[in-house]
Amino acid sequence: MGSRPCALSGTRSRPASASSSPNCSVLRRPMSEHADVVVIGGGQAGLAAGYYLRRAGLNFVILDRQDRAGGAWRHGWDSLRLFSPAEYSPLPGWPMPRQRGERFPTAGHVVEYLHDYEQRYELPVHRPVQVSDVRAHSRGLSVETDRGTWHAAFVISATGTWETPFMPAYPGMAEFAGEQLHTVDYSVPERFRGQRVLVVGAGNSAAQIVAEVSTIAETTWATRHPPRFMPDDVDGRVLFDTATREEAARKAGTHADGVSGLGDIVMVPSVRAARDRGVLRPRPLFDRLTAEGAAWSDGTMDPYDAIIWCTGFRPALNHLASLGLRRENGVPKTIGTRSADEPRLHLLGYGDWTGFASATLIGTGRTAKDAVHDITSHLPAASPPQ
């Protein structure tokens, strides 16, 4: 699809997105524009919101800090793939096509799907645009960016977590003379060939990285709690179905065994192979780090060349600091996807605190629809998404 001029404002009868290029990267000068809704973030959650905003006939823009489509999927390690088959990983309106020769789609396939999704629905994604601040006013919200200011009745924040990797503070971290990196900086195991590598973390990322680094390096896996491995036949399909039943039971006031009863780590092929090689043997977390390596509670000390911290992420929400949102359990308080403190703000795709399974491809569409439905109920002449 060829490039077309960016249309940054319009009416509900002729939304701004109607004549926009799906990648509106021609913005050059600071400007001030108006929209019913500004979506911050052009990853899977932002695109799902765009789909329903389009169907509701609203004037909206999607602001993405990256220069290309794909969201966080562009930045995972080279072997990263989905836990679920393509048919269990759709955004609303268009199922993900199957990837030839692959049961579980690769990250590259997901990036292609997100790119094609933007094109298919002609979503008005403007990139690269860096959002610095969101401020509240009597008539709406203003979104400050490096390309100017957008004024909107509502804002949907869908910036994800990949931009804010979390590395816990441990004694001796500053003393360690080797390399330290987070999951976000890991790409291929080859750079660690022949080294002694310590992997920290008990989740899926840690298990998958241990599985591949251990093929070419002496690898130790350290966890705060013993990881729980799921049965070999459990993948994303089973997880989502189980979680859906658990959520339905919770809403009905009854009980159903949930995902937590299945375990924590999905046994994708590489992890199963590592188990069969006998390398998935985590040890309790070290007491402290030293210049050479790690000191363990049993008094032993082991040298390492590199430490890979697979310790998760935090929501990327610095752009909301001016709103002064109250926090609960470390995240802004929400009612569904709507901020409890600023009702013109919705938060989408960060995890279950912004809606059931909202951080997954298949789950983000449901919560995006709920968010847009709430927005349309407050905008005259807007149509609820179907």
Automatic annotation (TrEMBL):
* Residue stretches of biased makeup (Low complexity): 12-22
Region feature (Disordered): 1-26
Report keywords, A-Z: Oxidoreductase
Keyword Protein transport applies: no
Domain of life from the UniProt record: Bacteria
State the Gene Ontology terms under molecular function. flavin adenine dinucleotide binding; monooxygenase activity
Q: What is this protein called?
A: Pyridine nucleotide-disulfide oxidoreductase
The organism is: Rothia kristinae
